[in-house]
Design a protein that fits this description.
7 helices, alpha+beta, about 350 residues, single chain, 7-stranded antiparallel sheet
């Protein structure tokens, strides 16, 4: 016996009800819980930069990004490239409240910036814990293309990636994710399934400039370290050897008959810097090879802590990873003799915390 259309509709309705229409899967429930818990702590950031046109008239230009409240007393983390050299920064909350923000400090070398707003008892996101695992679920909340409060989900695709910031500094321990990250997501939080902050979204790889499933987030370990210093000092205090150098190719070293396959010739030394005080020497003459001149006569650093260096950028990267108070062993060639010296890293004499 055939059922009428009305009977079919009633059966269908009863079936949906019996199976729990509106009933959510556990993963869906988790998405909703994390979003409802954390979205009030995610803000839209508008940074206004003043530029001059061809006629030298001042033209305001606005850029947008995301940020996340990490302290209930008004501290917000975002990317340095979101804030840049903005003359004016505003943040908009999920309740549509817009407030002016003070730039507490920026660190272009790690692409992290901290803002402060005067609004009591803000919702804040807690820092997450390591270790993370590839395949672990992650959630990103931000303002892609200006669409505020957008949620995307995915997994950790890889860990321990290295990326370079706009200052060409290497940032290590980067999280790669396939969660959709688009322009405007920069500076927003990457969260774990408990709603804890595990990273700050910073870059994507995409030929079109939009999401291609390869996004990167600065790990919470780096974020915590940088944010603490920005709040305390307004800057990140890093050790400096007080020197500069140029890389020597294997071919040049062979031509100069030096017993090395790689190295960095020290070309400049600050007399009060750590390298000079450790006894390292800078080039004091020139070598002519073909039609080119090269600095010569100084120490050639070929490794730091047994990690080979071939150019000045690699030397900077290795020092960048160190903390004040740590020791490094610098291996170098003087003349044709290999030597080494242990240097305890400290801040340059010209740099002191603001609180001192």
């Amino acid at each position: 016996m055939k059922l009428s259309k009305l009977a079919l509709a009633l059966v269908s309705l009863f079936s949906l009800s019996a199976n729990g229409q509106g009933k959510l899967l556990e993963d869906e429930k988790n998405n909703i819980e994390v979003y409802e818990k954390c979205s009030p702590a995610v803000v839209n950031i508008t940074a206004t930069t003043l530029r001059r046109d061809f006629f030298f008239d001042v033209i305001p230009q606005k850029g947008a990004g995301s940020g996340v409240v990490i302290r209930a007393d008004g501290y917000i983390v975002t990317n340095d490239h979101v804030v840049g050299d903005a003359a004016k920064v505003e943040v908009t909350f999920t309740d549509k409240t817009t407030l002016p923000a003070k730039v507490v400090g920026t660190d272009p070398d790690s692409d992290i910036a901290v803002l402060k707003v005067e609004k009591p008892k803000l919702s804040a996101v807690d820092y997450g814990l390591y270790p993370l695992k590839v395949g672990q679920k992650v959630l990103a909340i931000g303002n892609p293309f200006g669409y505020g409060g957008s949620l995307s989900t995915g997994i950790i695709s890889s860990l321990g990636r290295d990326i370079r910031t706009q200052t060409d500094r290497l940032v290590r321990d980067i999280i790669q994710t396939d969660a959709a990250i688009n322009p405007g997501n920069s500076g927003g939080p990457l969260l774990d399934s408990s709603g804890k902050l595990i990273g700050i979204n910073t870059q994507i790889i995409s030929p079109s400039g939009a999401n291609s499933g390869v996004g990167f987030a600065i790990s919470v370990q780096t974020v915590k370290r940088v944010v603490e210093q920005l709040i305390l000092y307004g800057q990140v205090l890093r050790p400096d050897l007080g020197m500069f150098g140029v890389g020597y190719s294997a071919a040049l070293l062979q031509t100069l008959r030096l017993p090395l396959e790689n190295g960095v010739m020290i070309t400049e030394l600050d007399p009060q810097g750590l390298a000079a005080k450790a006894g390292l020497k800078a080039a004091n003459q020139e070598a002519v090879v073909g039609f080119r001149r090269f600095p010569f006569g100084g120490d050639i650093i070929f490794s730091i802590d047994d990690k080979p260096v071939t150019n000045w950028r690699e030397v900077q990267d290795l020092i960048f990873d160190k903390k004040v108070g740590e020791q490094i062993t610098v291996h170098f060639l003087r003349g044709k003799t290999k030597r080494s010296v242990v240097i305890t890293l400290r801040l340059p004499d010209s740099v002191r915390p603001k609180s001192l």
